[in-house]
Each structure stands twice: as C-alpha cells, then as structure tokens.
Amino acid sequence: MPKSQGELEENQNHIEDNQLWQRIIQNDPSAISILYKRHFQVLYSFGFKISQDEELSKDSIHDVFIYLWEHRENLHDVRNVRSYLLKSVKNRALKSLNKQIRTIHIDNHEDFPVELVFSEESYMIKNQEDVKLKERLNEAISQLTKRQKELIYLYYYEGMTPMEIQEVTSLQYQSVKNHIFKALSTIRKVFNKK
Amino acid sequence: MEKTPDYINFHAEEFAYDPSFQSYVLASKESDIAFWKNWISDHPEKQTEITEAIQIIDAIYARLPQGKMDSEINRITAAVHAEFQNPPQKHIHSWKNKPFYKYAAAAVFLIISTFVVLSLFNNQSTDSKQLVTNHVVEKSTGKGQKLTITLKDGTQIKLNAESKITYPENFSDSVRWVTLDGEAYFEVAKNPDQPFIVKCGDFHTQVLGTSFNINAYPEINNIEVSLVEGKVKTYIQGQKSSDLYLEPEEMASYNITNRSIAKSAFDTQKNIAWKDGIIHFEKASFDQMKLTLERWYDVKFVVAKTPGIKGFTGEFKNQSLEDVLDGISFSVGFKFEISGKKVYINN
C-alpha cells in the first residue's frame, strides 16, 4: 500500500532506484526499462523546460540511458539516481542546444534551476484552450514565492522527501510541508477561478 | 506496519502531494498505476478532487502524452536488448542512430492461456515430461506445477499448471512457431527478421512490437490476448480479413465456437498476477474459483450443493489452500474440509 513519503525515515524511491542501478551493473537489461519508465516524465519535463523542444528532450533522455547501458560495467554507485539523471539530461540537452546555436539563459540556474522549472513557455500552445491555460499558469507562477518554487523543485523534480529537504535547507520539516501545500493551493485556486 | 493514508478525506492538494498519486499520473510505477485506477473507479465521488489534483501536477510538470511515452520506452528497450543480444565487438556508437533499432523491439512478454482441450491433461504426471520426436520438443506441466523453459533463441517461457507447449528444436530461418495449450508467460527475444507466432488451434498471435501479455480464461470457450505495451497482431488461420491489431491496454477475445474476435479493454494487474504466485479473483463465481483452485493446488472439489454467491473478489499471494479457502468461505459462507487431495464443500 502506498503511504505518504513524508512520514518515512528513508526514501523508499531512492532505495528502489539504487536496486535498479545495481541490476544494470549486473547486466540486466530489463532494469533499464523500469528505471526509464520511473523517471521519464520528470526528466522529460525538465528537458523540455530547458529546450522547449520535444524531440531534443526525448533524444537527450534516450542518449543518457544508452550511455548508462553501454558503460554498465564501469558505473559507479550514485547516492541519488534521480539527481544524477536530471543532471545528465540537462547536460545533454544543453549540449544539443548549443549545437543549434540558440541563446539560452540558464547559466544562472546551473545548480538550482528554480525559475526554469516554472518557465511559462513550458506550455505548448495548440489551441485557444491552451492560451487560457498558459495565462492561468503565468498567474499561478507570479503568485509563488521564490522559496515555494525552490521547494517545489526539490520535492517534485529532485524527488526529495521533506526530511531530506530539511537537511539541505534550513527549514523545519513541518515548514517544508506547509510551504509546498501553500504553493499547491495557490496553483489550484488560480486554475479553478471562474 | 505500513498504513494506507486516509485517501477518502483527501483534497486535491493532498493527492497532488502524495508520491504514489504522482507516480500514477506520471505512469512511473505499475503498482501505483494499478492501485489508483482501481481506487478512482471505486470512488466516483472524489472525481473533482482528482481532476484538480492532476491539474496541479500538470502545472508543475510538462508531461508527454502516454502514447508518446510508451513509444519512447519501446525505443530504449529495443536498443538495450539489441545491444544485450549482440554486444558490439568494440565500442561502436553508430548503431544506436540507425532507425531500425528505433522500432525493433527486443523483449516480448506474453501470457496465453486456453485450456480448451482439457482432455489432454488427464494424466497426473508428477514431473514435467519431455518428448522429442522429429525435432519437435514438447514440454508440459501437471496440476499444481509451474515450469520455466529457455529456448535456443533466448526466449523464456513460464508454463502455468496443466499446460503444454510444443516447438521445433531448431527454428526455421523465417519464422518461430510455438503451439500452446493452457497458460504461459513468454519473454520473447525479438528478431524482426524471424517473427514469433503463438498458435492456439487456428487462432494465432504474431509479435510485432514490444511488451505485451496474452491471456485467456479457461472456463469459457475463449482465447484472450491482452496487450500491455507495443503491438501484436491476432488472426484466424486462413482468414485474411480476420487480422486484428492491438494497441496497449487492449485485449482481443476469440470465441472458439463462433470463430469471432472482439476487442475490448483489460486490467494488466489481473491478467499477469499468476506469474508472481498471485491468485486473483474478480467477481468470480463459485465454479470459476473451484476450477482455478483445483488446477493451482492439484486437488479435486467434492461439492454437495454449489454455494450461491454473487461474485467473489479477492487476491491471495503464495498462500496455502487452507488459508485461501478460509478467506473465501468466511465471506461467502460455506464449510470445507481438506482430506488428502479432496476438498469437501458443505453449505
């Protein structure tokens, strides 16, 4: 049965990720597929927010996993698999973008791409409905504090538990939770305004 | 002990905060996907909160539609398996850019069960037997047995109880044929130049894409093919017009009597549970349960009067027959006695 990650001492997802990592090292191809599925959408979101390019994002993720597989014999243990994958995808995406000679402004966010995660451009506009959605999203983002964005990034992208976030920020456990909930509540309200 | 959160009282924000709910929305973990599909359909009154929770999550992530995600997963699976089976002599990096590998699938998972010809299994063999005639290999299991077989091409087959599989010892160059009676879980080594075809009588399933399950219920006169990922084609031998292609989460049911095929949706968890030692009943009649348990535990039911039940739903993982019967009889209301290989049922 699932349970709230916040209540756990240990981050179950990290443990499972590390088990999959070991299986890759031990030459088990199915572990790649499982790990891929587990993180795909988060990595894709991240790649897309950097590049605004669907194909480039997909290829970056693909290349990172191919690299892992081809170098499985020499892989080192990593403490946080999700974090490692996010960094790798970011590097790939940036490399491809540079090839395309496009100007990007992410240098400031090298290690903490908070603004990036909430970039308004991340909504592809296909129809009138999306225009409205994008406006709503912009509104929601403008109402979030920098702290809230930072915590959303750590919780939803890095996949950290409130416990772990407590360690890297100076915030208390309960305060971490409160900030995140407040942000979620703001987003919800903006989207459900009549 | 783990405790299930009080989801019934959750608001949209709490759902959006829950890691297992996120995993469902992002299609990350099979167990979460199955849990939430079930939970949401059981709690229509929470639909508004759920919809708003998904909206929140979509504001945080730019997620790709499910179909596109699946083809990406197929792509990586294919590439990795291709490399696994034919490791490059040196490190050659160009192979991964060849479009061929984008679409060539490497692993195929399928379950087929028919149990149409039950008379084949009347012998109560205690060990799986193997006959080799004319280079055709036959492997079979009795009641209460399971067997894992690895073919020369790397394909793995897990046979369920009372099942039989035959295949040529060496496949021909053009095609890999396997015939099946009963139920089996396949992990097929994919080779686009040598299609893998499973024959159940005149009903055939051909592997086209990546991962899928084939499943049929023995109790009814049906063969069922359930696709999890990728693509398969089912057809009736000799009937060109019978070709039916399946997309993920679709299932083909072949009615042996009418020789007709119908397409519908299916439940992944339910159909592959047996492989992991799980007995899964969903709105099952007493007769359906009886058949399943007789085959699973190698016993024979002696029923004085069939208990009238509306349909039993439940799951048992690696439990003894007594424990399973305890669970069922408690909710259905009958008495039972196990004596050797006989189970006596009394109302």
Task: Summarize the structure in words.
The complex is a heterodimer of chains A (194) and B (347). Chain A is mostly helical. Chain A is built from nine helices and no strands. The relative contact order of chain A is 0.11. Chain B has nine helices and 20 strands. An eight-stranded mixed sheet of chain B has the order 2-3-6-7-9-10-12-13, with no helix packed on it. In chain B, a hairpin with a 2-residue loop joins β2 and β3. The two termini of chain B are 36 Å apart. Classes of the chains: A mainly alpha (194), B alpha+beta (347). Chains A and B meet through α2, α3 and α9 of A and α1, α2, α4 and α5 of B.
The backbone outline of chain A, from C-alpha atoms, is globular
Sum up the overall morphology of chain B in one term: globular
Summarize the amount of helix of chain A as a percent range: 55-70%
- Number of spatially distinct domains of chain B: 3
Task: Give helix % range of chain B.
Answer: 25-40%
CA gyration radius of chain A, whole angstroms:
18 Å
Q: On the 0-100 scale, what is the average pLDDT of chain B? A: 76
Mean pLDDT of chain A: 80
Number of helices of chain B: 9
